[in-house]
Structure formats: C-alpha cells, structure tokens
Amino acid sequence: MTNSTPPPYPPLRAFLPAMLTLCLVGWGGLAIVVTQTEPTVWPRWLFFAFLFLALSGSALPVTWFLNLRFPSTPPLSPTVIVREATWVGVYGTTLAWLQLGRLVSLGVILGLAAGLIATEYFIQLRERSRWRPPAPSEETPPVPPPETPAPPPGAVG
User: Fold this and answer.
1) Which of 46, 57, 82, 105 is deepest in the core (most CB within 10 A)?
2) What is the per-residue pLDDT across 44-101, written as a single tens digit (0 to 9) for each?
3) Is residue 46 part of a domain?
4) Is 149 inside any structural domain?
C-alpha cells in the first residue's frame, strides 16, 4: 500500500499549450492589427480581443510561479491559476479601453487593480469555505480505536 498524493500544483508543462496558443494568437494578431489596419470599429475590437489573449497568455507562467512560490491551504486548483492570468488580461484590456477616452489616472489604475484583487480574494475565500478534506479511500481501512487493557484480577475499579 503506497501513499501517493498528487502534487499540490501541476507542472508548468500542463499550462504550456494554453500559454503558447494564447501568446501566439494574441501577440501575432495584435501585431497584424496594429500594423495592417486602420483604427476603425472592427479593428479596434480586434485590438482589444488580441490584447486580452496576449496579456492572459503572458501572465500564465507568472501566476503559476507566484502560486508555486506562495502556496495556500488548501492547494489551489489549476483553474485558479488560469483565472488569475485572465484577470491580468481583463485589467490590461480595461486600462487600454479607458485610455481611448483619456480616463486613465493613477487613481483609476490603483482603484481598478484593488477592485480586481478584492474580487479574486472573495472568490478564493468562498472556495476555501466550501473546501472539504478528501475522504479516505476505500483501500485504506479505518484505524480502530486503541483498546484499553483489562484490569488485573483483584483490582478494584
């Protein structure tokens, strides 16, 4: 009977296909949109979509490393790492969109970051409150309680 527990975090190799796809499509599409199109309505929306993909794909190894470096209890699932990288894409794309109207200031940058960080914190808080330790597997029998030895004959009890 071996006690094999899965590692708390998947290796970076597990995220490599998604990371490469997001980065290649995002940065490649962004380069094409910026150099080959005029800033009309549809290329502008493509710019935001490609920027989102590029930032999310580029943030994926960073969020993986930060979650590896600063582990939590219970361990986070791989979907949390992807979600955190997605927040980076949302943050960068929102700032780019706000910059079109010249609305970006230090207060907006910090406020938006604080709002997204608080949102992720509350999502993780909810996940931690719903977490239950894994049930013991059927192959490991429960440990019986220790038996108390019988008193010696003639003892008063």
Assistant:
1) 57
2) 999 999 999 999 999 999 999 999 998 887 778 899 999 999 999 999 999 999 999 9
3) yes
4) no
Task: Name the residue range of residue 35's domain.
Answer: 12-130
Classify each residue of 64-86 as buried b or exposed e, where b means 16 or more C-beta atoms within 10 Å of its C-beta: beebeeeeeeeebeeebbbebbb
In this structure, is residue 2 part of a structural domain?
no
Q: Is the pTM of this model over 0.85?
A: no
Measuring CA to CA, which residue among 95, 88, 79, 84 is closest to residue 121?
84
**CB 30, CB 89: distance < 8 Å:** no
Between CA 139 and CA 4 the distance in angstroms is 13
Question: What does each C-alpha distance from 31 to 54, 126, 140 come to in angstroms?
Answer: 11, 39, 56
* Cα gap 157→153, rounded to integer Å: 10
The Cα 97–Cα 115 span in angstroms is 17
List phi, psi (to 5°) of 56: -65, -45
CA torsion 13-15-21-25 (nearest 10°) is: -130
On the CB side of 79, CA atoms within 13 Å amount to 3
Contact in structure between 76 and 131 (CB atoms under 8 Å): no
Q: Which residue has the tokens 């791989």?
A: 78
